[in-house]
Amino acid sequence: MPVRHAPRRANHLSARTCAQASAPRRGLLAIAAITAAALISTLAPATARAAEYETFVDIDDEDDLVELNAAGDISAETFDTLVELLRRGVDLNKAPREDLFTLPNLSYAEVDALLRFRTEVGFITDPAMLVKAGVIDADTLKSIAAFIYIVEPGRRYAATSGKIRLRAATTVGDKRVPAMVLDGQLSTLRHLSLGVAGVLLRDRVSDVRYDPSRNALSAEAPRVQPVLPKFFVQWDTDRWAILAGTYRAGFGQRLTFDNTRNYTPNGFYRDLTIYPRPVRLNALCNEGAGELSQSPCQDDVDHKSYGTPDFRWQETLQGMAVGLKRLDAGIGWLQAYAFMSVKAKTVYQYQLYDPAICEDPRNDTDVRCNSPDVYKRQPDLLAPTSEFAYQKLPRMYRDTTAGGNISYFFNRRSWVGVTGYGTDVTWQTGGKPLGFQESARVPFGGPFGAVGVNASWGKRWSDLGIEVSRSFDSMLKASGSDKTDPRGGGGYAAIMRHTAAWGRHEIETIVRYYDRNFANPYARPLAGPDVYEGQRARDEAGFRVRYIGRPTKKTFVNSFVNFWVAPSTRTPAIFVRLRVDHQVTRWWTPGVWFEGRDKNVGSNGPLYCYGGDVGLADGIDASDGAEGDPDIVVDYANVETPANRCRGESVKYNIQSAFFPHRRVKLVPRFQHRFIGDPKSNSVDNLNQYNPEDPDAPVGKSRTGYRQDISAWLTITTRPIDPLRVRARLRYQNFAIDDNAYLEQSLWSFIDVGYLIKKTFLIQARYDLYVWLDKRMSTLARIPSPEHRLMLTLESRF
To answer: Residue 28 above 80 pLDDT?
Structure first.
């Protein structure tokens, strides 16, 4: 890889030849117990990958990440992290230890070896130097090539570089203007960078206001409208950084404040991420009857029609951030960051309630606590009209957040710091203050925030990190909750993580406790894949042990056991995963992995529903959910029982083989088989099955086995010549294999062709064919079927 005269990443089409419920007192007792247990764990050699991704990540572009997430290889959080990292990039010569940790496939030992090598040589002119020096191997370097860049030292002060990209997507039969996004970045004056991203929306309502005549909300119908969701201006030097615009920030163990998705965040990061095109199409009609005799879509073909969804993004911070990266003091240095954000935010319409008539949104039996209706505004404001459904409501409230961090570093691996923030919410609905349902990430009732202390210590093979945090919110006061069973007001949380590395082996141990009242929407630590009142890091006590390593030079193992208990219900849950890949020959690498999840270890069997998973990332899944709420639940089982009431289990295994018949050709066949608790699934009839979650329901024929799902993939990637890449994939998917009228059965194929002109201009075109094969009534009425999807990407670098 040659030295670049601008901060550019290795282009993904260039030849990759780099190498050759607890009260505060109980919370404090739990924190003390965790601290003692974690200190004992440090006596054993334990460790983890720098950033713990579920699989070896070897990608060229964002579409590769979409495929990994859609196939279940990486989680929604990993997807979000890597998409943002791919767009932002990592400067191989200037990135601190925390940023290098975020790169996939690197261990702590490799990151520290890279830092030592960088200090020894002064400047890495070519990433291939890392392989020649034995810092990392050739395969690892190739896998991170898309994420790294090099800036030539001492380049001219006025030297300017940048990139601009246009993406457009449509579906045959969708008569609307294509979904589009245009984004660009510019770097100049050595330390100055600017960026902007604009999106063309077609699906979203606008101008949401309170309608006093109906005591409800009203909004303008969806229309084509350009928006500018992302922009930034940043000045960044080795000592100071200042940013204005959209950004992310995070510190410590991600317990007090973090929305970066980085595994080890430290500071603020510019945000210009617009996610790739969503995987599924959107329904074109989302209106109910409202005040009319029937829905406007009832007899319209549109109520059966689907179209290309808009490109999506997450609403992060918007304002200013200032950071003092290093101020030498004593034996170490001081670090200080401060940030302020003022942003009008979007909310999903079913995450609202009216506090004027509802005392506590947790009371699901009180119809007054239902979400307010959203009517379609007509020229005559009093004329009967329909109401919207499944809509994201823009600019509903103003989020004002301020916070900061101050830390003292003894060395790059040992420090102590304090983080804190506060948020206030002001509703912008025409004088009608609303509130958030308990299912929303944002606490209801008023201001909220958190303060915490974090510390880290590292030496040789061992790294230990700890953070203790206390949240504050207004829910207790707003709901008038019973003081004998307080539900709100804030709570405690603690997490301790110990890592170590020796040879090719790594183990990590994490112990955590999150109080039931720890309602902190900016907490992103490790947590079980369940949700308590909108947040994952809440009402949970548990541990995770993870091993990643190479028992032999050609064998890669990734495994973990994650066990936790919900203190409020004493419900134990477990999530285990084991993946093994082995390179048999240069042209064949088979792999197998197993994954098991049990939402209640004490309740087992096929009659217990499993419900939903945290599945596709919000950025690529077309299921409705507000940006800024990434913990979207994908209900694979299609079970009507709320997922948080399900207590069943899911077990699946995968078999994969990667073949390399030629250095320019890669073929990857894969098969997946899943067993899942689903009392509604039955080969004879799927109605009125006995359900332990609802024992009073009418009983029909009892389910005697688990529902079975199967999926099979075949992916082919080739580079006939260096500038040209062709990628194709075929996927067959069948949920509930014994009932073709219950869940999805489909065949999805695509071909993607990209050509790089003179290493500066990329033309990439993609065609998808999605064929629905099941016999559900909704499928038989679906338009279009099959689906022909088209996407074009144009990108220029200068």
So the answer is: no
